[in-house]
Protein 1
Amino acid sequence: MLSLMLFLPLAGGIFLLFFRNPRAIRGIALGASLLSLYVSIVVLGRFDLHGGMQLLESYSWIPAVGIAYRVGIDGLSLPLVLLTQLLSAVSIVYSWRVDMRLKEYMFLLLLLQTAMLGVFAALDFFLFYIFWEVTLVPMYFLIGIWGGPRKEYAAIKFFLFTLIGSLAMLVGILLLYFNAAPRTFDVLSLIQQQPLAGQLRLATIAFWGFFLSFAIKVPMWPFHTWLPDAHVEAPTAGSVILAGILLKLGTYGFVRYSLTLFPQVFQQYASLIAILALLGIIYGALVAMAQTDLKKLVAYSSVNHMGYVMLGVSAAAFAYGKPDLAPAATTALNGAVFEMIAHGVITGALFLIVGVIYDYRAHTRGVDEFGGLGAILPVYSGITMVAMLASLGLPALMGFVAEFLIFLGSFGVFPGFAATGLLGIIITAAMFLWTIQRIFLGPANPRWKGLADMDTRELVALVPLTVLMVIFGVYPRPLLDIINAAMTTLVAALR
Amino acid sequence: MTALAWLIPLLPFLAFGLIVFFGRRLPGQGASVAIGALLAAAVFSLLLFFRLLGGAEPIRSTINWLVLGQQPLALGIQVDALTAVMLLVVTVVGSMIFIYSVGYMHGDPRYPRFFAYLSLFAASMLLLVLADNFLFLYVGWELVGLCSYLLIGFWFERPAAARASLKAFITTRVGDVFFFAGILLVFFNLGTLGFGQTFEAVESGHLSGGLLTGIALLLFGGAIGKSAQVPLHVWLPDAMEGPTPVSALIHAATMVAAGVYMVARLFLIFFSSPDHTALAVVAWIGGISAFMAATIAVVQDDIKRVMAYSTISQLGYMMLGLGVLGYTAGVFHLMTHAFFKALLFLGAGSVIHAMHTNDIKQMGGLAKVMPSTYWTMLIGSLALAGIFPFAGFWSKDEILTEAWHNNPPLFYVGLVTSFITAFYVMRMMFYTFLGEPRWAPAHESSGHGQGTVVHPHESPRVMTGPLWFLAFFAAFIGFVGAPFLGSPFGRFVRFGEEAAVPFDLRIAVISTAVALAGMGVAAALYRWRWLSPAAVRRAFQPFSTWAERKYYFDDLYGWTVVRGTVWASRVLRVFDIYVIDGFVNLIGVVFVGLTRLYRVFDLYVVDGLVNLIGWGTKALGGVLRFVQTGRAENYLLVIAIGVILLIIGGLVR
């Protein structure tokens, strides 16, 4: 079941290589992506809220060194899998007008989809590492070939940054492997064994190895500078996936691995990591405010939002071994995971929004070059407003639920840090509203008089995301119940 | 009944959704839908109100919005006396303003959207007053803020409107952060967001002492922002950039009163703080705001700004009332103010509609041209000034009586404020409606005139109707709190079992006399012209300059907070590019440099060695080449020499 879901996109990608007709290629790409989405909805239907890790599949692969093909899904990965499916399909729809080297483009998107799904579903470190690395390659080419003017620099920077992190993680994985008895790459068994629990020094090294890899991916301050460059140069669909899903690989790693495999070490450094998260929140928002390039602005707002996620995660880490803080830790983790999804939906939409105005209309992203678009493009302005308001955490939209839970939980653990983080919500509000003012309000700039409002392709891509922002903002329970079950189990296991 | 309560906010919300998606295709281009939904909500509110009046238990209803861990977060709504009164205020005043807007916004290119936003506002405000927990309160709180933002910037083509909307949202959000922190502190200590459980914890002493005061003050931070109290009042005057019905509904009657409502709703938390510290802060912030804003209102020439500062001042009055333990008095004033201030704003809108200017110095003599507007506004002004028997008299008097008993210094602040209030409102009335016209009536030939050449006319029925309706309330609603009728309002809306301070005729006489004096001075200056206003202004230096410069709050914030933030963001951006990313690039450059170095090493050392060997071999070969001559005698010679050397070697050894 999971494997079918995993490899459908890749199969579609290989299949479309045999076609020349662009319509056939697009059709196959979207078909494969949607089919995989359909399978994941079936998975959702079969998902048992309190079943823990489920739909497990395990096939022997390299038994001599304890490597097997192991996949499974739980309340942490399922929402992320669904997010991946959604944003991948949206990206393909949005890319309908790409005609330069279409075949490669669609193949890479589908390969990326499989790789990302693999990261979330893998339960074997070897398999996880392969998927983790495979995500780099398509993104590298997407930026490097279909990117903007400085695409080579951005692509290399992205690749090297994350590769360095990956190598550090490999050290961590190997440390785990060699200290396990029996030696295995099986994640579940490693979590149960806690192979480094007794060896603090090794555990610390392994923890920081994982940390470096995940922190670069998130990206946490000060490892974030690859992000704006990569976003600015990446094509729109690339940005959507990069911000929407690839960043979550890092936060997912923190929750799935760092928290469960090295709880003591994480607890020891939780305050430090919370400070980095706070720096990300405030620094990210302030730097975003100073940007004149809309895409860079959204990119820095990601640094800010991922700061909230990490604040929640570090609060949960700090609560390790303190049973009275367990409810707060659960709340904080719920918020962090919810924020991952919320940020994926909202920022994915925001990058599409930047693409709508930049790709085929204004060909500029200078915030100050617009003005008064609210009167010219009413539908576009409406959707943008909803997305930006969701991003700044307005109640009844998705971002608020996430931030509310994060603060509610982390305040119980780190009152001072959480209170400081509240500053971020003022700055974020100022930043987005100022952006809205500069782009949509004021007298209409005559330069953009003839601009057309959104077309079907763009609406098909953006409307589902907007609807989700409202639905889960008003009634988050369907999504949160899935997350909550997994987080409750996780926190209970940590105690 | 429970379903009815849920429907009250849902109906306007549905109207919002319908208008957003179908807009002009709806009856009345959406306006009828919005008005119908709100009127229905008003009827439901009335039903609930009378049910409560009949002695029924308050309605409560909750849903499990979330489950965190094992613990469900039960959130819901409640209808008690306070909520019932607020529901009526919001739906009744709201309906009038909706109807008025049909005339006022007629012909606006974004007409349906205006009613969509108004409906969303009504829904959010109703949710806010229905909430039985901090989360719904906060959600409604933020959503009314959003509507305020959208409606201030409704004519967003005007840069001033765009700026004002941004200022309003950010300023109130500063307050909201304190509010949010207060909520977090409650949840942190009690693990609940419900008001009921929180009050139980306060009553049982579980939540007490400095912590309770801290919570109360943090929550009050939100009220300061929302109700435009000093020092976060700066956004409200600028908010007058919005269409006038918006100013009436949101920035006078309902939303800005949310802060007052919140203090009333959470009164137990404020009340229980040791030595009433929290309430003292509320009272003093209110008193200072009331006085300061009233003095600024005196020097404003923009009719809406006079009203805006008056609103800040009156909200301060309500806070003062709550702060001096006058729970009933504060809420009562909230209600009466909603009616007469909405009336005044709608009247001002009617004037602006006719004159196409906000400047009262370009008006004058309008009483003859616009009689309905004049008479209704006069009723509103007398209510605001607190003249017997109009609405404001009763509530203002209650507040002053409470202050006299519980905080005498604030009684005098309130009394002085009431003098200034009567003065500025009459100043406005004289400038606008009486005296000689300061505008040139347009003649048949001049047609559409420029500048002060206008053709003022009474507004259409759809606008004067609501004016008269509200005027009726502004005149008579005060009687629900009249002591000689047994203060029915006080018996319905009260805090605990505490009896309100009894009516005191002396205070009523004094306050009326003071208000009359204020009106008399205004008449002396602006009607009978015994003194030139400019001379009075000079006599009051430097206070008049301070008032004109709005006590320098805007300048202070502009120079510190706004510039500071923008500066910080620019500096950090540079820091990001040159320091953090510079470091990253430096590492890149170092590695590229290292590879270059390796290349040099490769070229000259590794490759050099290889070449050296090659060269050496070749050179050796070149030398050895001469040995191989191909001549047999040479070889024989070498062999002979070799043999000789070997023999010598052998002999020597």
Protein 2
Amino acid sequence: MPGLVIEREVLIEAPADVVWRTITEPEHMSQWFADRVDLVVEPGAHGYMQFGDQGGPVVVETVDRPRRFSFRWNYPAGEEPVTGNSMLVEFTLTPEGDERTRLRVTEGGHELRDWPDEEKQRYADEHREGWAEYLDRLANVLAVAGRDDHAAR
Amino acid sequence: MTTPPDDELWSAIADPSRRRVLDLVVSNGDVSASWLAGRVPFSRQAVAKHLVVLERAGLVSRRKQGREVLYKVQADRLDQATRAMAELAAQWDRRLAAIKRLAEAAHAKNKTRRQS
């Protein structure tokens, strides 16, 4: 979705339900995400994620198995996370055949859901030039540099 | 956590409307608030507010020319913001790669179990 801060995706050779379990079950989450995950995957559930000696609360927002899972984090202590004071992480799973799933993740401060479609489109069009493109280029450069680092080792 | 080092910078760029204003300043250079207001779907007051936040975060600077106030981007700060976002993107790439590895391994295991 245009306008969100970060959008990345990956194609996985596994059915959507397997991918769903990998991203939502705490014992799996602790393998790709936080070191320790206390989370019940239900809308509105409050949980906690531990990263090394740091950690923070999370609140589950959407649970639509096996299509969409989202949570909010990075909000001020003592506050409830809402649009504007927190980051929304959203996973979208799209099956491509029986044994392949496209997994997209977005992380952003605001959603554009309330914007009219033509507005989103205009925003996306304008973003092809300017800063967003600059960011994409830089991200590519960093990705290539990262690969080279890896190859050099 | 994924909190980038600089909260003020982050909240300045996390808002899509504000990024739109910033994009216009980036691609057009010395521009006034009223010029910007003519190119976005929100009010002049909203543009002015976004410019205040961007200026406070150090992303744009202002100067007076005659009766106009003109804004331009602060390249160093923009670079810093871009790097913070690129780092966040790279972090998600690493996580997605790990999810892919785990899900594919689980799927392969399920298949073997079904066959045996």
